[in-house]
Amino acid sequence: MSALIPSLNWLRVFEAAARHQSFARAGKELNMSAAAVSQQVLALETHLGRPLFERAANQINLTTEGSDFLPTVQVSLGAIESKAASLFARQRVERVTLLASQLMAMSWLPRVLADFERENPLIRVELLMEGTQRKADPDLAIRFGEEPHLVRHPSWLMGMSHVVMGRKEDLARMGDLEDLLSFRLFDVAAHVMGWTALMNHNFGPMRGRNLRLETVDTTPLALIMVSQGLGLAIGHIPVCGPLAASLGLEICSLVPKTPGPGNYYLEQPANRPQRTAVLQLERALQAAAQTSLRGL
Predict the structure, then answer these.
(1) CATH dotted code for 8-89
(2) Looking at the domain 94-296, which fold is it?
(3) Within 13 Å of residue 135, how many CA atoms lie on the same side as its CB?
(4) Which of 58, 150, 164, 232 could serve as a FRET partner for 7 with CA atoms 20 to 30 Å apart?
(5) Domain extents for the chain?
(6) Of 140, 88, 83, 81, which Cα lies nearest the Cα of 116?
(7) What is the CA radius of gyration of the chain?
């Protein structure tokens, strides 16, 4: 007996007949006659040299060999169908590359993109973070700028407000500003609105006050440090809201929400035609941003 099975269709027919325990019902599923199903099963049995079914009047039952063979056939057929779908359905999916800052990519964007892909199953968004080693010319970028005119930019996405974030248990024992200043304060080096500027804006000059400042590279790193009980950090809402919530952080009510400076806006390359999928993503991002801003 040859080790190879000449026809994959024999296996499909066998699996359907075994699942339905009927040549007629298997034939209906496969758009074949019951006689054709019986013939293909018989051909497989002849090739294998063993009966797979016990036949009786209007009834078939798997033999011991047939019962042992069925799970392997089902797993193998399923694996073939799954692999074919993953390889060849991919050709119908349109891909859009989106570039964003680390904070955007780690906090606000994942849920927005998940909702977008659920509503647009034939579009996949490849998210790149600024500073990534992957070299790609994005179809769309979320840029950040501090210029006031960006709020009137045609692709303006959102502004932001600065808040103080900490663990719930730490915030619960803060009664006044002095309690707040007793904590280590994580400052992000690149931010214009750091702790000194935020405190000066809301409480007047901090001259003579000892701010326990510690500089870190990024807002996500600052928030992670805070989540471990190491101090407090400045968060930018709505952008950092999802990340802060996932880390169990809350907004400190002692410091008012302080608008700006800074705005996010969308930018498409000027040297390529606009694709419908990119425009759909742009509209979805703007709608999600408006929803986030209404929730503040």
Answers:
(1) 1.10.10.10
(2) D-Maltodextrin-Binding Protein; domain 2 (3.40.190)
(3) 0
(4) 58
(5) 8-89, 94-296
(6) 140
(7) 31
φ/ψ (deg, to 5) at 241: -55, -55
Q: Are strands 59-62 and 53-56 parallel, antiparallel or unpaired?
A: antiparallel
**How far is it, in rounded angstroms, from Cα 241 to Cα 163?**
10
> Which pLDDT tens digit goes with each residue over 30-85?
899 999 999 999 999 999 999 999 998 778 999 999 999 999 998 998 888 888 87
Q: What share of the chain is helix, strand, coil (3-state, %, to 5)?
A: 50, 25, 30
**What residues have CB less than 8 Å from 26, skipping those under 6 apart?**
13, 16, 17, 19, 20, 32, 34, 37
Query: For 224-268, what is each residue's pLDDT tens digit?
Result: 999 999 999 999 999 999 999 999 999 999 999 998 788 899 988
Burial (Cβ within 10 Å: 0-12, 13-18, ≥19) of residue 273: exposed
